[in-house]
User: Fold these one by one.
Assistant:
Number 1:
Amino acid sequence: MTGDEDGHQPMLEVTDLVKNYGPVPAVRGVSLGVARGEVVVLIGPSGCGKSTLLRCVHLLEEPTSGTIRVGAQQISFGGSGKALTGRKLAAYRSRIGMVFQHFELFPHMTALQNVMEGPVTAKRMDRRAGADLARGLLAKVGLAGKEQSYPAQLSGGQAQRVAIARALAMSPEVMLFDEVTSALDPELVGEVLAVMRQLAEDGTTMIVVTHEIPFARDIADHVLFMDAGVVAEHGPAAEVLVRPANPRTRAFLSRFHHAGALRSVG
Amino acid sequence: MHYHWDLGMVLADTDLWWRGIGVTLLYSVATVAGGIVIGVFCGLTLLSQKRWLTLPLEAYVEIFRCTPLLIQIVWFYYALPILLNFSLPAWLAAGLGLTLYMGAFCTEIFRAGVMSIGRGQWQAGRALGMTYARLMRRIVLPQAVRRMVPPLVNQSITQLKNTALLYVVAVPDLMYTSSIVTAETYRPLEVYTIAAAIYFMMLYPLTLFAKRLETRVDR
């Protein structure tokens, strides 16, 4: 969103993106841009299409139509067949990091192996260099000493931080977070948000789908409120989250005010 | 009723018994191995979504799963030659039936094992920029194979018992050997008790092994 304002092209740009599941529309023409180092937060009621949008950006779902541009690579959807397949698709995905709601760590690998898997397998990095990189990233997310633990031995918060390190290991140009704290026990949410906050301060380009409204207010440069597959309102966090213009945004946020107030006190 | 057991007389021809055990083990190992090869190949192919590839394989699996193995062996030995105008030797007809039968079950085991790995794991692999082949090799198969081992061991146990059907086409396995010894000694009680005991001794350790594997997979 801000990209155009300061004269730079946004590093990620989505234009008129549509995703239908059969006859059912999930995303109905969404455009957004993310500048380098910017944090964009997507909020909205469940089923509004925000997760689908994120998965479309990663091409885990093939968009029905529209275009996505990452850096210099522009991809148009809606032609015959898939826009990208095989190695080209894999190469595209390796430029974008994704963190899932349910972590999806590889259970047969240790934390260290999980983090080094991407660089070593997909990027052909030397194993030793991969292990060094992974150790550094685990330390960065506060998990030094947990290198040899298997996912089953980690708490949800630790597992999610390993998943963040695993995505970071690919040195992605953009990081996508899909409701990464929704599956966590409340007392474990804070440690994951702290890591994300640190990433935002470090200048990581991020798109975050979340229901943590106070957190969104803290880290977001821009907030998009989605409803029924379209962006109903967007703007700086201070405007959308504090003085929403759209009545639907207001109605949505009012449900969080109580819980949000409690959490910021605690 | 007082029956005088005479195991010595029945066991006198040890070479014959050893040959029977050897044939049973050879057929078990060979048809299980062949079945696994078929299972991996057909299972992987079934995972592709191309109907012209999957349809014939699904038909194969269902035909061999839903007809008695005895009929398959008899069919390959007595019926197929009428179609081909060329008869298969008994050892081949029976081996073919046993292998294709095992292959049908292995296909299902393999396919189900891969399918049991959740969508999330696939997506996590794709998100790291892995191609299908790498994802399969690094993420899906290492997890799926662990889940396939217990059903494979169970199916192999069944397969070893199924080799007794070699009897109908006179391949000298343990079962057919028993019938020969019975004909020579008129001692069916000893002969078939011994045969049953030998099958049991071969299979009981395998079932213990299967149980251990299952508890290990649970962990």
Number 2:
Amino acid sequence: MFYYLGLAAILFSIGLFGVLTRRNTIGILMSLELMFNAANINFVAFNRYIITDGLTGQLFAIFIVVVAAAEAAVGLAIVLLVYRNWRGIDTDHYSVMKW
Amino acid sequence: MPAPDGGIVFAILAFVIIVSALMVVSLKNIFHCALALVLCLFAVAGVYILLNAEFLAAAQVLIYVGAVAILMIFAVMLTSKLASRKIRQTNENALTAFFVCVIVALSTIVLITKTDVWRLTDKALPADNIATIGKYLMTKFMLPFEVVSVLLLAAMIGAIVLARKEKS
């Protein structure tokens, strides 16, 4: 199990690096997906190797996948809206929440 | 520490995941990043199969590779001039962020190896766990299941409302 948890930790750190350094908003969303997947690997690994009374870990992972899909849909709609208004989606282009 | 289940397969999958994740966060062309993301998500689905989560692997391929990654690629193409390689893709915090991430990874791995309060088992999950998942979704996890369907509906309507052209 430790190998799976270590893999998830490394994947999470890579995603964190992407979130912190990307200027492109779509790049940030992609890195977020990496972090979601790291959390999912953890859930499934715990579900496989720890004594439980069911498949709770896998069910949680399924719900995370669904929430991530919803997040990606809304996030990308916001990205398109920002692109239409500012002609660019780098995070240092826009700094206001209201105009 | 025993070798992981799946041995060489796990090693290959882990290598693919880490290399493609590094490509996602470091490539200059954002379109190539999206393709690397697809590869990474496929490899994660392989890890799920190693961990006896076949339904989750199928859902991963369908939802992530089939829907989310395609959505990302669409967004990249709709904002096409950003896909050129002229534009700098990282901000000034790269070095600091690198150290922060290395510290996070190392401390997490140290914590994982030091902790041994888990009640581990080697018993494999039952082979019919897809049926069990379906049963749980209709009984014990009924409420989250319904809430998540409402959330999907809300996200769909929200995305349509946000991306619609305003009449003015």
